[in-house]
Every structure is written in structure tokens, then in C-alpha cells.
Design goal:
CATH superfamily of one domain: Cobalamin-binding domain
Helix content: 25-40%
Number of helices: 21
Strand content: 15-25%
Oligomer: single chain
CATH topology of one domain: Rossmann fold
Strand order of the largest sheet: 3-2-4-5-6-7
């Protein structure tokens, strides 16, 4: 069985191209783990960037590990084999530092499995000097690390580029576990949960107790980008969602401020990569792939987008973009997409009605949406993907009816053009439930109940069933509920995560502990209440409160309600 597992790893390595560290020695050995499958982790640009940064640090050597797939997992359990790294088949537990890169809250549930396979106690309080230090970072931690805080010795709550160097310099040095943690807690963006513990009363947080010399709040460092290489794919593998392209980050953060969007706030301020840095990464990427994927929360706001696009096309490459604003879609960009072979373009109205688009600060009108659709249709792009959110605060059936009308109008235009061109066009609707996220102006809002989300989903499916050339997709409400429950949770949720692993189901785990995820996710939080993530200096709470009050001022005035 062990041979099969190693053979699987060898096949993955054999298919990879690009960056491969050759030095296997080092003062600090790090196992970087993505707590999901290989093909998911290797699609993540943040994971690849951290891997490159670690292996380019003198004295540090880094290898990778992933959650085994279903077949491999059975082999691991059957053979009683420990979790092994991809590069050298070394046991994860033998490293000095185990570092998790966690992008999504749902992956918190995979941590107990990885600890069990590695032979490492899940609880930080049960580990000693014979065990590696356990660290975690990534977007999920930037929002709220508390549900997994009991599992961690350290957490990085800021961006990797300015945070890793001083932390690694500290960890490379010798010292007892307690002394290293105390020193690490004084570094910006570094959180040591054991030294900053919450106080509870009636299941609500009343404050935090900090050990001597430990700051009472954890700051957030962000990378200027002007003095660092642009993030880009470091290792190419066909076994990922983006296996046919080289990814290059063009910007970080977003200047728009949509009130539901966590990425738009936790990555503030909006920063743009220097053109020279992006072009250098493009040249590197074109050595391995013909398609360049431009990455950023606001790609269409990148000031050098035209220059980069022209350079890629001039070099014989093609382009894919992670996102484009409806009001930033111009003829030049559409021509670039057409030359790159795009048959489908995605637009994100998100709010189903104009009232809701104003509420979330989307900054676009119905006319803007129709103009963007017409521009694409006029260029013979007849396959459109439209992103919407349902369950936004204050949403009513009138808002859903307006969404149906808007989609129907776009469909009519697609059908008319398709008949002229004698070919079919299709609209794909991607609908996702609203999830209240930390560090957004809507963090105090409740999520719709499962019953209400299912009712709205059924309403929309009925409305679009009679419309040909429309394909309806929706994220499962229960998956969204789990994400909301974890994203808003406090430190005691570590018990829930362990119980879910023990029983093989998060629903069974919640029931066994008497927890009600739906009630927790749907609760409207009083604005004066301390939040589990309030110890983090990330986005000023005053700014979020102002945005919240601006969003709901008309609604509050009209209804006299205290909360939306």
C-alpha cells in the first residue's frame, strides 16, 4: 500500500514543470499543507507564492503535502502509513514547522484528518518540543482564525511577503517552544492563540486576556507590491482547474467597496503591480503555457491592462481574466478576449434589483448591465454567464421578480442575435446565497434560513424553467450555511470541528454538541457586541459601521427597525 501512495506522488511530480528546489538541507524545514486535494491546492496562487517565498529564503527548505484523495485516503488508513510530503516522501511530523495555507472555511473540517494522518496531536496544548510547530495563514484566517485557534501554535493574519521574513528569521534560531512563541507574538501580523485568550459570558465574548509582553491586538501587514516580484505560477501541473494557463497577479484588493465582499476589504488598500514586473512574469509563464491568466479582485481596474494584453497577444499568447467589471468592459478588452478564443464571458450584476445593487454599493445600473450585454452580443459573443446573490439583507420577492425580468431581457437580445447568426447562444445563471462575512459592512447581518433560501431557489427555477437557452446553477444552501457558521464562529468551535471528524458529518457533530448552525448564521448581531475577530487590527470598525449605516439608512428610516 505504501508503494502505491509513493507511486502516486511520483506521478504528480513527474507531471510538474517549472520551479523545483534542489537543496534538501536547511536550518528550518517546513511542510506547507493545503488542506484539500492536490488539484485544488495547486490551483491556488497564494499557496504557490508562499511555497516559492519559503524555498527562496536562505536556511529554509519547504516541501508540500495535501489532503489525500478518497482512494489514497483508504490506502493510508489500511497501511497505517503517515502522511508524506510530495517532494521526498518525508513524514509530515518530522518537519520543524507545519504550515497550513487555508483559503476557505470549509477546509477547517479537514484539519483533524490531516493531524490524525500525520501523528500530530490536534490540540496545540497537547503538543511539546517533540512535535513540529503548527502555523496557519490564508484568506480564511485573515477573516477569522478563531474556529481553529486551539489547533494552532501560530497564525499569520497578514500578507505573506512582509510577514514571513521576520518570522522565519526568528524560527530559524534556536530556542524553547514557549520562548519562540512569546517572541513571535510580538511580531506584526503574527497571532499566538495561547497568549491571547477570549473571555466568555453567556456564550458571548466579553474581552481578551493577553500574557505579559503580548500585544492586546494583532496588526495586519500588507505588501506594497512595488518592491516585490509579482505573484505568479511557480509550478505547472495539468492536474488543476487552471492547468492550461500561467497565472499572474496584476493587482491586489479592490477600490470598489461592495459591502458584502470580504476580499474587497481584507486586501485593502487597492494596489497595482508595476508593468515591468507583470511583463517579466508573463515572459516566464509563456515558456510553459500559451495562455496567461490575469488574476486580481479588480482586473479591469488595472491601469496597465491594455499594455499587458497587447504584449501577451504580440508574443503569440492568449489571455484569460479572473474578473471584469460590467462598467469596465470596453471594445478593446472584448477584442482581446475574442482573439484569445473566449466563447463565454461572465458578468456579475450580483444584486437582482436596482435597489439591492444600490444597497451593496455595486455602482452599476440596469442600463449598464444591458449595455455590457449588448456590447458582447454585438461582437458575436452569445454565451453569457451571470452571477447573482440571493438572500441579501432586506431582499423581497419583488427583487427576485426584477432579477427574472432583467435576465429575460438579456435572453431576448441573445436569442435575436443568435437567430441572425444562425447559431445558439446560452445564458448560464450562477446563483449563490448571501453569506455574512467578517470585516465587511454586512458582518452584523443574518443569513436567510435554509427554508427561505430553498423557497427562493424553487421560485427562480420555476421562473426560468420556461425560458429556453437558460441554465440555472446554485450553490447548495447547506454548504453556504456551513461556511457562514464557521466564518462567524469563536474559539469553542474547535470542539465542533473535532466532533464532526469523529462522527463523519458536520450535521451530526453539531447535533451531538447541541449546536444550531442555522440559528448562529441567521442571527442579527447587535452592533455594540464584541465579535470573535475584534482583536485583529484589519479594517477599522468605524469604517464598516459607516458603510452599514449608509446602506440601510433609507430602509431604517422607512421601517423604523433597528436592524435590517
Amino acid at each position: 500500500m505504501t508503494w502505491k501512495i509513493r507511486e502516486s506522488s511520483r506521478k504528480k511530480l513527474a507531471a510538474e514543470e517549472g520551479y523545483h528546489p534542489t537543496t534538501r538541507g536547511g536550518d528550518l524545514s517546513v511542510c506547507l499543507i493545503y488542506p484539500n486535494r492536490y488539484h485544488v491546492g495547486m490551483s491556488n496562487l497564494g499557496f504557490q507564492t508562499v511555497y516559492r517565498l519559503l524555498n527562496s529564503t536562505p536556511g529554509v527548505v519547504c516541501e508540500r503535502a495535501f489532503l489525500p484523495d478518497a482512494t489514497e485516503l483508504k490506502e493510508y488508513h489500511a497501511s497505517h502509513c503517515r502522511l508524506l510530503t510530495l517532494e521526498t516522501q518525508r513524514e509530515v511530523s518530522s518537519f520543524d514547522l507545519v504550515a497550513f495555507s487555508i483559503s476557505f472555511e470549509q477546509d477547517y473540517l479537514n484539519l483533524p484528518e490531516i493531524f490524525e494522518l500525520s501523528g500530530i496531536p490536534a490540540s496545540a496544548s497537547e503538543r511539546d518540543n517533540s512535535h513540529p510547530l503548527v502555523l496557519a495563514g490564508g484568506a480564511a484566517l485573515f477573516l477569522n482564525p478563531e474556529p481553529v485557534a486551539d489547533f494552532l501554535d501560530l497564525a499569520v493574519l497578514g500578507e505573506a511577503e512582509p510577514t514571513l521574513a521576520p518570522l522565519l528569521a526568528l524560527l530559524v534560531g534556536e530556542g524553547e517552544r514557549s520562548g519562540l512563541l512569546a517572541a513571535a507574538a510580538r511580531l506584526p501580523s503574527v497571532y499566538v492563540p495561547s497568549l491571547l485568550t477570549p473571555r466568555y459570558e453567556n456564550d458571548l465574548i466579553r474581552g481578551w486576556d493577553a500574557d505579559d509582553d503580548t500585544p492586546a491586538r494583532v496588526s495586519r501587514l500588507w505588501a506594497p507590491l512595488s518592491d516585490a516580484d509579482a505573484s505568479a505560477t511557480a509550478i505547472y501541473t495539468p492536474d488543476t482547474e487552471f492547468g492550461d494557463m500561467a497565472l499572474v497577479e496584476v493587482s491586489r484588493g479592490c477600490p470598489r467597496g461592495c459591502r458584502f465582499c470580504a476580499a474587497g476589504f481584507i486586501y485593502l488598500p487597492f494596489r497595482q503591480q508595476p508593468l515591468e514586473s507583470v511583463l517579466a512574469r508573463v515572459d516566464e509563464g509563456l515558456q510553459f503555457r500559451n495562455k496567461i491568466g490575469l488574476v486580481g479582485a479588480a482586473v479591469s481596474d488595472y491601469r496597465e491592462l491594455g499594455a499587458v494584453s497587447r504584449a501577451i497577444l504580440d508574443k503569440g499568447g492568449t489571455i484569460s481574466v479572473s474578473s471584469l467589471r460590467i462598467d469596465g468592459l470596453n471594445d478593446e478588452m472584448i477584442d482581446v478576449l475574442i482573439k484569445s478564443g473566449h466563447k463565454t464571458v461572465a458578468l456579475a450584476p450580483e444584486g437582482g434589483s436596482q435597489r439591492l445593487r444600490d444597497l451593496i454599493n455595486k455602482g452599476i445600473t440596469r442600463d449598464d448591465i444591458l449595455a455590457a450585454a449588448d456590447r458582447l452580443i454585438g461582437k458575436d459573443i452569445l454565451n453569457l454567464k451571470l452571477y447573482f446573490i440571493i438572500g441579501l439583507p432586506t431582499e423581497t420577492d419583488d427583487d427576485l421578480m426584477e432579477m427574472v425580468e432583467l435576465v429575460g431581457t438579456i435572453r431576448e437580445r441573445v436569442v435575436t442575435a443568435a437567430k441572425k447568426n444562425r447559431r445558439l447562444g446560452e445564458i448560464t445563471l450562477s446563483v449563490n446565497p448571501f453569506i455574512p462575512k467578517p470585516f465587511t459592512p454586512f458582518q452584523w447581518c443574518g443569513m436567510n434560513s435554509l427554508k427561505e433560501l430553498e423557497r427562493k431557489e424553487a421560485y427562480l427555477r420555476r421562473a426560468f424553467r420556461g425560458m429556453a437557452n437558460i441554465r440555472f446553477q446554485m450553490e447548495g444552501p447547506r454548504d453556504a450555511l456551513l461556511q457562514a457558521f464557521l466564518s462567524r464562529g469563536h474559539r469553542t468551535l474547535s470542539r465542533f470541528i473535532l466532533k464532526a471528524h469523529e462522527l463523519g458529518s458536520w450535521k451530526k457533530g453539531a447535533k451531538a454538541l447541541g449546536l444550531n448552525p442555522e440559528e448562529a448564521a441567521g442571527r442579527e448581531i447587535p452592533r455594540e457586541e464584541l465579535l470573535p475577530w475584534d482583536f485583529m487590527d484589519s479594517v477599522p470598525k468605524e469604517r464598516l459601521l459607516r458603510e452599514y449605516e449608509t446602506a440601510f439608512s433609507d430602509h431604517l428610516h422607512r421601517t423604523g427597525e433597528e436592524n435590517p
